[in-house]
Amino acid sequence: MIPFSQLSIKRLLLPAVMSASIMSSLVAAHDMVPGKASSATLIIQNATVHTITQGTQENYDIVIADGKIKSLGNDLPTPQGAQVIDATGKHVYPGLVALSTTLGMVEVSAVRSTRDTNETGRATPEVKAHIAFNADSEIIPTVRANGIAYAEIAPGGSGLNGQSSVMQLDGWHWQDALVKASSGMHLQWPNVGINKSFWERRPVAKQKADNAKAKQQLDDLFAALKAYHKAREANPKLAIDVRWEAMRPVLQGTTPLYIHANDYRQIEQAIAFSQEHQLKVVIVGARDAALALDLLKQAKVPLVYTAPWGQPRRSDEGYDDLYATPKLLAANNIPYALAIEGSWNVRDLPFAAGQSVAHGVSKEVALRSITIEAAKVLGLDATIGSIEVGKEATLVISRGDIMDHLTHKVEQMFISGREVDLDNRHKQLYRKYDAKAAD
């Protein structure tokens, strides 16, 4: 991963044939200033509060001090000197949590020098995503304007990619934004299916051989990792290999292994693999979760579902199979976190949850999937993901239902008690051309 300072240099060295306008757009940073910690107490009054863990409370008050939620209830006394926000008729939610994103690591997807998600090689466990995080990304303000306060950023690739980190989306730089480093190790599970598309030039036999080879390489890799781990335990003075050393917390069960698997055969293999090696795993993707319900119930592994919408992959699938999967998970008492992979498209996370409501999921379960369930996956549910006394005062005030396109209107956001500037490039351009239209 390339730190942003190096990434900036790479941008400046782009070929001179690029126009000045394109060049300026690449090096520009957003001009929203991160919020400052307030020494004053804040009280939000008369709101509809979606606590997540204690139901939805009407005409509720929230008292915030020192970045924490100090008290909740009806008709709370106003602390002396407190800032008062009248939220009558408005909704208050915990800050939403986005999983499996590349926020801050991709600026313009069509320009290679602004994409810093992948390292060279199929085994780079030492890579840490937060080193490449650009807190000045123009994309970030457009995402948090929809209520998303935290994001897990994860490295990409086709093998053992490295470590994800959890960032809060209102900071001066990655050190300021970092909430949790090394929240998980990410592994892309090898292909198991046969690609019959027009663009696939490999014969079926070759594809099968390549799939088997990739799986064997993975088995060999973990055999080498376990041998290294055993040798290091026996002799702490043994020379350190930074790559394999990064995997030791995974083998010890203190760091989860995020296995990206979509095909139901991948899910089956990944769960069997985790049981064989006694690993703490999280299944990410799970496009075929509906075909593996019994297995997921039995394995009880955390699940991050990243296909809230899309077209069928197989000719015998229903047009709405992906849309209906969250309902099946909920009906089978399989907890899941909902996620949208990528960068700019992460802003649609609350609407993806709303889409699941339209396909049979209760509003309570849908909200849990983008708040407390996501926080549980990250191991941060003790501090974020719900509105409870003692937790971080990371709150979103919306004029309507945050999951509804029509009524959703985020008006204020607080991250750890600091008010966040919700302006962004989209709003600035809207105001610009709205003024032109009025001429």
Tally of distinct domains: 2
Number of beta-strand segments: 16
Find the CATH superfamily of the largest domain: Metal-dependent hydrolases
Taken as a percent bin, the fraction of beta residues is 15-25%
Q: Which architecture of the largest domain does the CATH hierarchy give at level 2? A: Alpha-Beta Barrel
Structural commentary:
It is a single chain. This protein is α/β, with parallel strands linked by helices. The chain folds into 2 domains: 118 residues, Urease, subunit C, domain 1, CATH 2.30.40; 289 residues, TIM Barrel. It is 31% helix and 21% strand. The chain is built from 14 helices and 16 strands. The strands form 2 sheets. Strands 1, 2, 3, 4, 5, 14, 15 and 16 form an 8-stranded mixed β-sheet that branches. An 8-stranded mixed β-sheet has the order 6-7-8-9-10-11-12-13. Strand 6, helix 3 and strand 7 form a beta-alpha-beta unit. Helix 11 runs antiparallel to helix 12. The termini are far apart.
Tell me the layout of helices and strands.
Blueprint: H1 4-12, H2 20-27, E1 42-50, E2 56-65, E3 68-74, E4 83-86, E5 91-94, E6 96-101, H3 139-144, E7 148-153, E8 160-168, H4 174-177, E9 178-188, H5 204-234, H6 242-245, H7 248-252, E10 257-261, H8 264-277, E11 281-285, H9 293-299, E12 303-305, H10 321-331, E13 337-338, H11 349-358, H12 363-369, H13 372-378, E14 395-398, E15 410-415, E16 418-419, H14 425-438
Parallel strand pairs: 1-4, 1-5, 6-7, 9-10, 10-11, 11-12, 12-13
Antiparallel strand pairs: 1-2, 2-3, 5-14, 7-8, 8-9, 14-15, 15-16
